[in-house]
Amino acid sequence: MKVAIFGSYNGGSIGDTAILLGLVSSIFRVSEKDVEVTVLALGSVGINEELKALGVTERVKEVPVNRRFSDLAFGIGEYLDKSWRYFKRLRGEPPLNKGRIRRVLRDSDVLLVGGGNLVMDLYENWPRILRSVCDVSKELNVPYCFVGVGSAPINTLKGKRDLFASLKFANGVFFRDLASKEYCEKNLGFDKSSVGPDLAFGIDCPELTKAEKKDALLLNLAAVYSDRWPVKDPDKYDKYLSSMVELVDRLVEKLAIKEVVIFNTNYPLDEFAAEDFVKKYENCSYAPVSLSFIRGRNTVSQLLTICSSARFSLVTRLHAGILSKISGAYVFAVEYQPKVRDVLHNQTSGTMVESFDSVLSGKAFQSINQDFSAGEREENFVGRDEVDKLVRQVVKQCKPQVV
């Protein structure tokens, strides 16, 4: 069986990479025959290095579909690729190498689209990119399914049209949370979908959950409302950072935290927010706690190891929360998007979620005390078995004769 995978995989988001690792790992586990996996990527992911670090012995083929001249050396290919993408945009076309996509799909039995927050138009060009790949699959009669995807926001008529067309011709659509399913029913009129787990839970590393935990608080900060965020609001961004300083101090006091460790999942965007937070924290906080900052882009396995050493994690990014949960931490999550609450509440244990507004008002996590983490740690409601069940169902639905 030959499986192609497409999503917003570009190496910048560790959350997207974790989703891809969970999906690929599951495909190898559930396949009864030899399977070849090709990832249609929008940047350099380094998926085989990530798989090796997690102990997965199988390997995949990674094909960059946002490039045309990538094989040319001495930086010439990179320069020509930038020019090529620029002229594509001038002509109103998505910056995709359709010839490369067509060659991969022509040799594939099935295309899996996902996971991640793909059914949205927050980024203007994304719906056209998604539809272009789905259209090629349809033209070649290669069945495709959406698996483990999220949705929202969808605000433009053009985005609605392209997203609906992509979903309409899929052999199956499996959202990762009920809120996404209901959002698409309301905003797109698309109601032929199901709900399954987030694919990142397909990562299998039980030894990390059992690792010895320190009295440390991990901290992840999305750059919400900053000048690098799609929706910009400088005043609200400043209030958000100030409120997070107050929240961290509250958790440090109530949970007897000795160390705060900041980590990124979306590099470099999160790093800018973390730097702004550190400046504000050093000026405004008097808490007797050690503050450290793990800079740069880490691999999924590196972040899992980092997360496995701490008892607690305060996150804004969904997959910062999921990686923390896989590693066995207790998680406090800030709901800056509905997916954060829906996924973490319904698929994990030992997680508390508060709204973004409650953080801004200073009311978030007021009831927390040291008893929160007392007692035996419960397993998450979702793990590799649930992801394997979903992937097996998706593959059968797309190509019944191969499994």
UniProtKB/TrEMBL annotation:
Residues covered by the Polysaccharide pyruvyl transferase domain: 69-337
PANTHER family per the UniProt record, alphabetical: COLANIC ACID BIOSYNTHESIS PROTEIN WCAK
InterPro entries registered for this protein in UniProt: Polysacch_pyruvyl_Trfase
Protein name, UniProt field: Polysaccharide pyruvyl transferase WcaK-like protein
Database matches in Pfam families: PS_pyruv_trans (PF04230)
Claim: ATP-binding is one of the keywords in the record: no
UniProt KW Transcription keyword: no
Species per Swiss-Prot/TrEMBL record: Marinobacter pelagius
Molecular-function annotations in GO: transferase activity
Keywords for the protein's UniProt record, in alphabetical order: Transferase
